[in-house]
Amino acid sequence: MKAAILNSATKSLQIEEVDVPPVLPNQIKIKVKACGICGSDIHFILHGKMKATYSPCIPGHETSGEVVELGENTSRFSLGDRVVVSAGTSCGKCVHCLANRDNLCEEIGVLGFNQRGGFAEYLIVEERYLHKLPDDIPYAQGAILADAVSTPYHAIKYQGDLKPGETVAIIGCGGLGIHAVAIAKALGAGKIFAVDIDKGSLDNAVSYGADEVILLEKNMQVGKILKEKSGGIDLLADFSGFMPNIENSIRSMNRGGRIVLVGIGRIKLEIPMPFFIIERQIRITGSYGSDRRAIPELIQLYSEKKLDLTRSISGIHKLEEANEYLHALEDKKGNPIRFILNPELG
Ligand SMILES: [Zn+2]
Ligand SMILES: [Zn+2]
């Protein structure tokens, strides 16, 4: 089959013919119809920031496609079924996995990084990673449910514990944060503030339901501005990884407020006013990926017409154009949200 292979020497993807492995018991083979290019692929492929644990490495962790072969012991799918593949991999046996909290698994991994991903004509995965995709959700929109939409969903709903009517602030409105805005809206948030350093990302946020935007400039105290504009934030989710924003936002939090850290930065987080946090019972928590609950619940929100991802698909391209669109995403050329690769094109 044709696949986009990581070449870590040239920091790019190379289209090559590779063998398709046999379908083992408990596995299902899908013909890839769409695979999203994620911001983490930029770090992984263009900057060599993360190392693949297998070779040849085929990235891509936002995959949808059609079931074309069923391994022994599989039972939930039929040939021709439309499916989405979870981005996260896990052991499937530990206490967390058995409780559907697989993103807490000790052996957590990500498709593409730890095993072959979706930048290829075919993908073979364990049946437990698959979710049925209804006919009315296009493959491209289905694919991004795997990470771009499910990661913020987990952050907002489960780690952030959003309740209807609450005031929400989203810092960082790129591929993930933008969907945090959409999800907060879908789950009935009151007022939504979107914060970013990029004007185009804030325009996207407005189109997804942000009530007010803050264009962040250097040394700006985002917390102070949020406090003035909102009177108090109940849920703040950070997708930027820039910890000074968190530090100065603590004072903008309401009693019982939650701060959810999703963006991964290398700056240390200092807690400047512990008593403020203690007395107001403010929770600071992390959120990583999503668990098995996310994709089916997102499909439900979609079917209730509470979630429209049409604008999230910035273009559907050939596998051969992967490098070009990795760079276009990094350069934010044309204000993209998600570019999709479809190996069936070209
Ligand atoms: Zn991703
Ligand atoms: Zn596990």
Automatic annotation (TrEMBL):
It comes from the Bacteria. Gene3D superfamilies: Medium-chain alcohol dehydrogenases, catalytic domain, NAD(P)-binding Rossmann-like Domain. Keywords: Metal-binding, Oxidoreductase, Zinc. Coiled coil: none annotated. Residues 8-261 form the Enoyl reductase (ER) domain. GO terms for molecular function: metal ion binding; oxidoreductase activity. This is Alcohol dehydrogenase.
